[in-house]
Amino acid sequence: MPYTHEIRVTWGDCDPARIAYTARIPWFALDAINAWWEHHLGGDGWFQMELDRNLGTPFVNMNIDFRAPITPRHRLVCDVAPSRLGDTSISFRVNGFQDGILCFEGRFTCVFIVANTFHKTRPPAEIAEMIRALLEP
Asked: Which stretches of 18-124 are DSSP H helices?
């Protein structure tokens, strides 16, 4: 089951065409991925991972397909799930819906790093185990 994260889209997120600015959509997806980490690590989102675990996950790839406009009329519901775990990377699938309509489909890949040296690393065993248990088939 994917993790669901709800976002309130506001007037300030929109452009003169009355839809979300294109640049806000990756922000919405990244907010949902951060919420996924917080949920599955017990409040340990990216900020805490960097500071408390010395573990970073910078993005190496982002791909978003736009399906329908995003507006402030409804909450944006983002389904997040890990789709792949490599030796030193993780990929997420994020789908955003409003009022039951698919607005975007995204695929995002991060690499695990030792935060203070910015060198690639394998994820800690307990995190890798948690991710494996949640991978989409």
From this structure: 24-40, 46-53
